[in-house]
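User: Can you fold this complex?
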Amino acid sequence: MIGIGVIGYGYWGPNLVRNFSDATGSRVVAVSDLARERLDRVSGRYPDVLTTTEASDLIDNPAVDAVAIATPVSTHFDLGMRALEAGKHVWVEKPLAATSDEAQRLRDEAAARGLVLMVDHTFVYTGAVRKIADLVQTGQLGALYYYDSVRVNLGLFQYDVDVMWDLAVHDLSIMDYVLDARPRAVSAIGSAHVPGRTANLAYLTCLFDDSLIAHFHVNWLAPVKVRRTLIGGDRQMIVYDDLEPSEKVRVYDKGITVDPGPEGRYEMLVSYRTGDMWAPQLETTEALTVAARDFIGSIETGGTPVTNSAVGLRVVRILEAATRSMNNRGELVDLDLAKVGA
Amino acid sequence: MIGIGVIGYGYWGPNLVRNFSDATGSRVVAVSDLARERLDRVSGRYPDVLTTTEASDLIDNPAVDAVAIATPVSTHFDLGMRALEAGKHVWVEKPLAATSDEAQRLRDEAAARGLVLMVDHTFVYTGAVRKIADLVQTGQLGALYYYDSVRVNLGLFQYDVDVMWDLAVHDLSIMDYVLDARPRAVSAIGSAHVPGRTANLAYLTCLFDDSLIAHFHVNWLAPVKVRRTLIGGDRQMIVYDDLEPSEKVRVYDKGITVDPGPEGRYEMLVSYRTGDMWAPQLETTEALTVAARDFIGSIETGGTPVTNSAVGLRVVRILEAATRSMNNRGELVDLDLAKVGA
Amino acid sequence: MIGIGVIGYGYWGPNLVRNFSDATGSRVVAVSDLARERLDRVSGRYPDVLTTTEASDLIDNPAVDAVAIATPVSTHFDLGMRALEAGKHVWVEKPLAATSDEAQRLRDEAAARGLVLMVDHTFVYTGAVRKIADLVQTGQLGALYYYDSVRVNLGLFQYDVDVMWDLAVHDLSIMDYVLDARPRAVSAIGSAHVPGRTANLAYLTCLFDDSLIAHFHVNWLAPVKVRRTLIGGDRQMIVYDDLEPSEKVRVYDKGITVDPGPEGRYEMLVSYRTGDMWAPQLETTEALTVAARDFIGSIETGGTPVTNSAVGLRVVRILEAATRSMNNRGELVDLDLAKVGA
Amino acid sequence: MIGIGVIGYGYWGPNLVRNFSDATGSRVVAVSDLARERLDRVSGRYPDVLTTTEASDLIDNPAVDAVAIATPVSTHFDLGMRALEAGKHVWVEKPLAATSDEAQRLRDEAAARGLVLMVDHTFVYTGAVRKIADLVQTGQLGALYYYDSVRVNLGLFQYDVDVMWDLAVHDLSIMDYVLDARPRAVSAIGSAHVPGRTANLAYLTCLFDDSLIAHFHVNWLAPVKVRRTLIGGDRQMIVYDDLEPSEKVRVYDKGITVDPGPEGRYEMLVSYRTGDMWAPQLETTEALTVAARDFIGSIETGGTPVTNSAVGLRVVRILEAATRSMNNRGELVDLDLAKVGA
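Assistant: Here's the predicted assembly.
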């Protein structure tokens, strides 16, 4: 039975406590938060869980085997490093850290100590994303043309990060899981409409070795909620609409057929194919439950979780490069993600 | 009664012939096309209309007062110039010409001769776009944050132009009509997935003097058809969905309120407003009918149509700059549209 | 080449003229209508077609082999009978006639003379309905539970028929084509909201030998347009949404599994199955084109069209019984459709 | 502080415990359920709440001022009567009782003792339904034409009640709240597709004194979830779609205008009006929270809750009559709801 300590009981922390309480193989030992009234809520619901306003109490508690960090991004590195140095396995909310340097150091520390370090890219554990990855990786879509994602709504302005670090991080982690290829360069343009605040609207484009292109539209100021991804391949295409109550993933047997023109000329003839649409049944287990199992299982077996620190580092690198690009009005920034191990 | 000659009877020409035949104040005198079987179709439906495979026959016909050009973009300049030189008013399908230099020369020639030169930006004449322009220009949306457009489907690959010149031209002309501000710089990234063919997928971003940002996603290879524009202002926001059968324009009384934090600190506090949604009834006259009336009326009164050559020139300049940007992997290209007169 | 005469050039007549003009094997010889200005429109578009305000001129014209009747329902019998007596094949708009007696007499006359008598149940010739019939009849849905149809919008109030004879006739003809079983009894309740006018809103229920139930909601006074049919079977279920631009037919691998409870008790245990959804590609040929071919082909080969007079008679019988039921506030009225031959 | 005892901790009980725990003015004293493991769940979450497998322990507990009954319908009468006889206020899940006789006796007992008796028609307390009632009752829709409701999905088969008593009860309670008029007669047709089980599909029609008609379609075996009500008036019309995430209520300024024909003839001329659509912002407080406040407030002030026993009795009478109608294959059954007091 792995003892879990949860740092931060704000928006997401309660979900972590609930899932690690219910999961086979783990129990929640302690929760820390700076706000007393939040800790009172913990005690009301979970009388046996220790509460403290001091994260270090929790980290140092010998009954805590693993620490789950659900605090603002700027604190991820410091808390994560203290936990690793205390010999604890670490689960960190997305993004892994505020800089790639911090992410790399966390990763190195965990590796040196043989501890599990996992970033909570929750969407990767949904039935929808796992089905999409399966379809892409078994070649059902054929060679990929594009990956286009929109994630907008009237969302909470974050204080410490901009809309890319808040929302695009989800889509970059999904893309990292679904695609085998890694982006080679990134460009981002955005806008901050509130004086003194970070960008609340951004367009991020990733280029790859071939003609594949990925694009992400994130916006905290949209009148309607949209969470839709189009993935185009030369055999089939996917529409992933996360707001659909049931058929979130639709596979279209549509596309083009390209033939050389008469006399083998340079110009290619393009004709259209349309066929059936198919919405596969999806696994409906709550994503966070699957993620928690992956974390616990990795600790138990000494394995590596799906959303491990290499994944977390790659995503932070892309966000970091996108921030640099946005500061230079969309200038293309090269990426070298190959160095990051699996 | 203004005599109209239509050059080109392919996809769009039949609509021109039908509208100029039905419109009060005009009649169709002649149609030219390179393909005999298309002209036979004209004769079958309109026995009194002259047909010819020679555009010059039509241009030189003294019964033709105005020439409507519905041919590939590369021929717009040559045919338009010949018609103007023959003293004919000219209607050209979008885009006005293949280069801004050509567009400028057509514009100068028409001005010098006192002839009407109009580009067929049909969407500008829809009830939806006219209502949106009214809402924006009477200040109902407040200061604008963004203009975000998506126009994708499994569309015909064009031979002579890329997807921006084929699809984004619609949205740029709508934006030009709706907004008072003109973009100062443009960036575009795209991809050509068929060897030897132009880009079939592109993302185009326009920057303005202030924090307003405009973005256009166009794609010939999408599995679903989307034609949706979001326009965000600090008072209200619009969703314009051209595929909705009735409520194409929805106005949301939603947004944020920004207040200085306590002690007048730098950081601004953001709170949310949500209110009613409202879908105004729209004028349903066919857009092309309204456009034809504008053309005929401008000829009759010596006036200037809404989608005049200055508009056409601005749109071509943006497309030209976008093409340059795309060739340089998204490098921002400055625009100076102020020079173009009204 | 079969010569067609079309009686009535109002809402639907122009579609008939266009389709019989374009179809291989037929040409339109003459059109009659009471209104001169409508006939002028015919002459404008089809200079070679004879026009007349006298239906009898058309019926008696020896160049007319078949008569298509697109006039108000009350005239179907008289015009149809005159055409049959003149030895002409007959195509009648839906419904076949105003009473089952009239329908039967038309059917008998056609049979006695060996002439083709077809009712234009256009929806039966759509790709969507043909695919649904195929799925139902090959057993993919299993045993049928229900057939539920909604066809409402802000539609034209008809002068001579109520909303059942105007709209439910479509759905009854679709059901007749899709199902093997025939209803045994019908109940209808409706309401007339305009003084002196027929019912503009109706609910019609058909009962069958087994537990299958069919229900039809038709309404001329709905604020939104809905054309949706649910068909539930014990293996799969269909949603047919005629307003969907592409995936009109969706097949759901959903349902229940029924098992005897423990100890073989009377009470059955019900558990749920959910699986994939699938939207088959549909044939997109215009339905009226396929119908016209069926009519022409039946004349050429001496065959029987799919929407023959037996079908038309069955549908009129159901409507007639429904009217009787509605006049008795929903009293169940028995049907005996078995007598009607194939 | 009113002490609440909750009987039944199955599907809905946990919501009652949570709401009465959080509400100002009430606290949950005790919970009873026949299943021990459910009571353990109560104790885990609410350590201070007494648990018991004996409902009578709870009813007799002097700290319990009011009893909330969330058990199968067949037990409502017996438990409710015992609670009233013990001098407790009573909250009962819908429907109030299994027969109108039981409902009447509960109502009489509560009145005799001056106790509050409330039925939990939760939907009546939603922002959507309250807004609709406001629009209808202030005359914005004008005279009503129809009320049409669809509530279908792949839902749980209930053991003790059929689909009308399970689902239509919601819509009948909404209608009762929204309309001033009361139905005069009811007809219902349905089907039971599982041997030995109640009807899982039903169509219920209510007739009124005038031409208003109300219709309810309920189904446990539909492949898609639909919860949509159309309300047509002679001035405006409403579409209430409970599955819409935000704009659940849409008001259409659409309809017909009826004028006498020329020469004051019998036949009325019908013309169409179309105007704006408007989706008012809705109150978003959880309906059950508002309902709990109504119950508590009524106890505190000696008032009458909105969903009081007269409402509950009327709904049970309609369901009872509908059941009789269904057993007679849709025979119209008269209702006399006027006797039921406010």
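The interface with chain A takes residues 45, 47, 224-225, 243, 245-246 of chain D (CB under 8 Å). The longest helix of chain D spans residues 309-327.
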